[in-house]
Fold each of these.
Amino acid sequence: MLVNAIEAKGLVKNYVTWDRRGFFKRKKRIVKALKGVSFNVIRGEVFGLLGPNGAGKTTTVKIITTLLLPDEGKATVMGYDVVSEAEKVREVIGVTLSVEKGFFWKLTGRENLKYFGMLRGLKGRELDRRVEEVLELVGLKELGASDKLYEEYSLGMKARLALARALLHDPPILILDEPTIGLDPMSARTIRELLVKLAREEDKTVLITTHNMFEAELICDHVAIINDGRIVAYGTIGELKRRAADRLAVEMIIAAPHTILGDLEARISKLIGIRELGLEPLEEGRARLRIVVKPGEEEVIIAKSIEAFYSNGIKVYQVRVHEPTLEDVFILLTKGSK
Amino acid sequence: MPSTSIDIIRASVFSTYAWLKNNKWLFFSMLIWPYLMTFLILALGMVYGSLETYRERLGISNPVLYILASSGIVMSSLMIVDVVATSALYHRWLGTLPYLLLTPTKTYKVLILEPVPSAILSSTMSMLAILPGAVFFEGLLGAGKLFLILLVVYLGMLPLIGLSVIIASLTLVLREETNIASFLTPLILLLSGVFYPIQVLPTILQGMSRIFPTLYVVQAAKLTATYTIPEIKALLGLISALIILTLIYNGTASLALGTSERMVKKSGVI
């Protein structure tokens, strides 16, 4: 029996793009999207392909799902080659590329699923049964949305329908490109719980791409971090966190209007002499300051920061020190990317 | 389980049915379109001349039925070109194209077969819409003629599908987001001799009209609308022309689609 459901070895992909500088004038540009991507996805696990925007996640997914030809390298899904045995690969995968579109607007959820089920060779009672099963599984039946037109769906419903389509022909492998992007917390949680359930109870292999570290930490057994077309880290969440074990994260919630954040970040950095920090705007004129420090340094840094804030009239609401999260590892490994 | 051609056709028929069911006004407008077109042409024609003159110039016995049938034919042709040629683009806009291409079968099969049932259904409907008119003017004989015209329309579809697939391939490869096929609509209307004889066109346009299958379909329709029994020899000539065009267009289309599939999957347009 195959141990790996998906194997990618040395995938290389270059795109030709054109910079348009006028009506006729344009300049050719080669974008190196993948520079030798290799990873394995073990059967029955939830695997996360993480990376910042433009890192190569979607290109990798498109190659694995046979929608794109690699320039170099090889990828197999359940032992089938994605180039020479593309049709076999398509039989064993369920795919979601975008949760926002990909259905007929003037058809209901149920009709859309029937259409895609027919394309997959399902027919008669089996088709009806599977459509009902997946509508129930993703919760669209419970929401009373099965017979609503797709154009009337909320983003959360669209995401559920996209997952339902991926599950329709009961494939052993699910490949989902950012399945929770843009969803409200409740919908995102429902999708995440469902993915874990499918992997644990139905032995499905799930590959998701995301840049939501919280999500990856919550559901993934293994993750690979891709940056600038290369895999820069691979392992379990615990293994990756150990890569940042010599670090601690200090988090402060401060009162800072959003307009001064850029300036403030530079000032704090200069004042406390630390480069690895970030300011994230929050609601109600607050911001979250995050400083990565070495163990033992935290007390001095906190004291210096608070002093600096108060001398500038900035209130500090909350201070918290914690172990490195996957996000810290991600930032550490993808630092400097665009 | 691999998908068969029948699976793709069934899915396409189902989506077309569901689409029409959920868009009843569109369905209704498709049915009355030939009548509106006939009314417009007749009304414009009456400004410049009489029905008698039109009858004499075109050599037809019933101008109203002729225009009605011609409107049906031209609408069928436009629909085939529109549906098949813009199918890939339409699916790209909807975001359904990747999921079509994920069907476990040869990609070219999906791209050709998926739009065809919709094209056939739409053109059959626009021809059947004329049925009440045909029965009103000529009784059962009118219905029989219409059936004959429908067969010729189906034959005319074969080269039109090939032509449309070539346009679809171009649209994908050139990464155009606009409908390249739309330039064909006025050309088909102009060159097919639907509402006037092509002899009134300049020689160069008359030559161009011979590469459009619609011309032969319209001429065949004219034969069936003019005479009680169509002249078999003339009809065979027109059918031969359609078969030759089918071979040329579909042969080119199969080459174009294979090439464009490779180019699209290499360039990552999808």
Amino acid sequence: MLLELRDIEKTFKDNQVLKGIDLTVEQGEVVAIIGPSGSGKTTLLRNINFLETANSGSMTFRDQNIDMARPSKEQILWTRRHMAMVFQNYNLFKNKTALENISEGLVFGQNMAKKEADSLAEIALDQVGLLDKKDFYPSQLSGGQQQRIGIARATVLNPDIILFDEPTSALDPELVGTVLRDMKQLAEQGQTMIVVTHQMSFARDVADRVMFFADGEILEQGDADEIFDHPKNDRTKQFLSAIAEDY
Amino acid sequence: MFDTRFAINSFPKILSVAPETIILSIIATIIGLILAIFIVIVRERKIRVLEPIAAVYVSFIRGTPIIVQLYVVYYGLPQLLVALRNMGLNTTTNGLPVMLIAILAYSFNASANISESIRSAYHSVNYQQYEAAVTVGMKPTRAMTRIVIPQLITNLIPNFSNLFLDLIKDTAIVYNIGIVEIMAKANILSSLGFKYVETYLDALIIYIIICWIFAKLFQLLEVFSRKRVSHTQEFI
């Protein structure tokens, strides 16, 4: 088991967003988290790499136990250096070129020599088919291109887990496919991933396990067929039928 | 009648003291910038005790005319030094150079204004840029210096340019404490020749030239830095 979360609770002011989440992720597993907006899916991801700090709960990651409510600076840095994240709005560094966006983490997160980092970054950029854009700044790239660079920025770090926070939600429908293709390829290479997504087709085709998340709780989980074809929970059924036309 | 000859003859005389204006403005801006950085750190990191002091300091300076601040330093500083000497400190109390007093007053003034500009430039950098930087494994300070601050600087330049030009123009009142800069020289020449429009027109032209040059410099700096944080339209 690569990652285990136990009883994660998170409250924003009076609003309890996570109500005791338990989650385990095996090496090489692709976990898709689906559910209505505002249900806490993104918050859960953000808690895993400490962009938010949970009110209570604990985590075991690569056999290290971490108190989610009181992580030390070292634990936070260590966790982040073994994970990577892909954001909904790409969040490429605006002041860096495509290539620099990818090499930045290697050089300034992993202390790799610049030359080595650049050559790895070029390989990663080539894998997403954007090597010709290496000197472009994010503002000169389309959303789809930016997100694929966002994925390259994550994969180049060789992380144990990549967290995807609705990676295709901000994209033109036309560009969604290219990003999903990159993600599917990653999954096939055995990359462990936790993917918060509204792309039901992706969850169905790629995910090893699908979790249905609503109101800060995991209401149902199982493999894709179970969730999509034989949902047990009423809330799951309701959600799936409401979005049925989308997939 | 407008005395063209007088205007032309006065021009180089007024221009010759332009360095006073420029030096005062530049030094005060540099010191002000350094102070401003401290103020911003104190306020943004909400450092205990210091934070409210910094906030009061900033609102005090922003809420009072520069000429009042100048007089407070001009008359207050010698008294402060006397008081310090009475307490046993070895301070000189006479012959405090007026330029030093002006630099101090304008530095304080600049620090408050610049700190507010830095804060606004800082908050206009999307916080997610910082988050993206730490998720690739950068330490928080690295994330700031590599990603946030370069973008902050780009955002800051237009405002900073404005503040600097304002400061140049604001130095026109230091003749009140006896510094001979552009405005003072114009006043002196006017009263010697009993001709006013001519010398003030000269001063006006000199101020315009100085401000234009610095505005251009800042503009170039901005273009250079925007290139790196390009905000051009997405072309798709």
